[in-house]
Write a structure and sequence with these properties.
The protein is an alpha/beta fold and 188 residues long. It has one domain: 3-Layer(aba) Sandwich (Rossmann fold), CATH 3.40.50.150. Helices cover 23% and strands 30% of the residues. Helix 2 links the parallel strand 4 and strand 5.
């Protein structure tokens, strides 16, 4: 076996930037004075580098501050970014117990307060919030929007030619990166 193979995977996880935030793994250091979101790319989806995540965070940064629900939080990168951007309170939910544990660890590592719960965003009761964020597959986004847990939403997780089709919602902003899209929506 070649020396260092057990750490070579780290070479693929590089820092990214979104909405003025440095997003990267714990073995990298953010530039001095740059607000950071540190995410360990281990057991849950979301390193922050994917185009859907970066676009989602960029659109969240354009929204009026208030309460936020990260629906399908994965690693917690979007929830931590939301706190860094001034949203409060922030609730993060995921169906996967491992994602819930990782999000709690990501919040702890970043020194932010996030209410993290295990829940099914399509069936469990969701609290009313100012903004719901969902960086998940399009079919789930559409079902989540039909639940109306917020008057505003930022969604992503789908290709640029696609967009959510949910009655009672209108698109107010869109960002496309690397062939992927994120939308800001308002309940009509």
């Amino acid at each position: 076996m070649e020396d260092g193979w057990e750490d070579r995977w780290r070479e693929f996880h590089r820092p990214a930037r979104a909405a003025g935030l440095w997003i990267g793994p714990p073995w990298e250091s953010p530039p001095p004075g740059t607000p950071a979101v540190v995410v360990d790319p281990g057991r849950a989806f979301g390193t922050g580098a994917h185009a859907t995540t970066r676009a989602c965070i960029e659109l969240v940064a354009r929204q009026e501050r208030g309460s936020l629900l990260d629906a399908g939080c994965g690693s917690g990168v979007v929830a931590v970014a939301a706190v860094r951007l001034g949203f409060d309170p922030v609730l993060a939910v995921d169906l996967d117990a491992a994602a819930v544990a990782v999000t709690r660890e990501t919040a702890r590592r970043n020194g932010v307060r996030i209410d993290v719960r295990q829940a099914d965003v399509l069936y469990d009761e969701l609290p009313p919030v100012d903004l719901v964020v969902a960086n998940i597959e399009l079919a789930v986004v559409q079902e989540l929007l039909a639940r109306r847990s917020a008057r505003r939403a930022v969604t992503s997780g789908y290709l640029a030619p696609q967009s959510p089709n949910a009655a009672g919602w209108e698109r107010v902003d869109r960002l496309e990166l690397d062939g992927w899209a994120a939308d800001a929506l308002r309940a009509s």
